[in-house]
């Protein structure tokens, strides 16, 4: 009630002041003669009256402001459990989970693109990529596998949907072909660290000996049932030095004819102890597909051209007491909609990019066995001769 009285007093004082101001305004519009004839006593009385109303107005405003502040303070909130918008005590502090995953991935991909998937990376670039990869891995929380009595054994051996599909190798800190189950199985036969170091040296020398070849797409197709197919596409110059065949041509290069093919290895993957991010591999077959070499293509496409490693392992197990079938282990340390990071037992990194959800291996039947001569002639005709029938 007091607040209403103060408000009324405030309005009344304001109206009186306005009225008094209007009177003074009308008085000021009078002629100079009328101002001269005004009584000093009357002017003094008017001044006192003006000061009185101004003081009343100021007191009313101060009293009203004080009363309004008290009422706001004493008024309970409509929601006793509500919090004010200026209270930031409960705001969580930034943590490592605030990592910008996209920016980190882009930084890794820039290194991968400038070094041909890490093949020509300098030690400093590999160190930088390693730090970025570890940041992604540290902020990755895989969904644990839930099991109950109704879960069948076969369902536990399936691959999670986010891992199934077609992936291409984008970066590695080691030789690209070591992502193949065949070379992973070879590493798994090493029992000591010294043997592992020797195997790594062998892989480096193997790549150096085949430096004349170019590594194309390295693809991994993962089936939801646990079947893994690695496709390692290679291109080799078939006539490396033209002057050896045509001595009168002083040309340091070779003919634009290449030998193409894909080394395809397959294996079965099964989760280890219910962890669907860690797999044990059981090597199956190795074969060459999509060769463009005439005659040889027909032989390689035959079923007998496959290297059946399981049959070979069985023979060795039956005849060599110390031999054990290798079961290499792969750990998926990071995965999202477009990227997947895998580590082998030496902690080597293989970073893949998702290409599609397809679980079907590549069909190489359309590759022509002509050394690429037909496509070479087509290009020559389109660019030079331009003879069309």
Automatic annotation (TrEMBL):
User: Which is a Gene Ontology cellular component entry for this protein?
Assistant: chloroplast thylakoid membrane
Q: Which intervals of the chain are annotated as region Disordered? A: 32-52, 71-102
Keyword Signal among UniProt keywords: yes
Q: Where is the composition biased (Low complexity)?
A: 32-45
Q: Where is the composition biased (Acidic residues)?
A: 80-90
Task: Write the record's keywords in alphabetical order, separated by commas.
Answer: Signal
The UniProt record lists the keyword Signal: yes
The organism sits in which domain of life? Eukaryota
Span of the signal peptide: 1-19
What is this protein's record name? Plastid lipid-associated protein/fibrillin conserved domain-containing protein
- What lineage is this protein's organism placed in? Eukaryota, Sar, Stramenopiles, Ochrophyta, Bacillariophyta
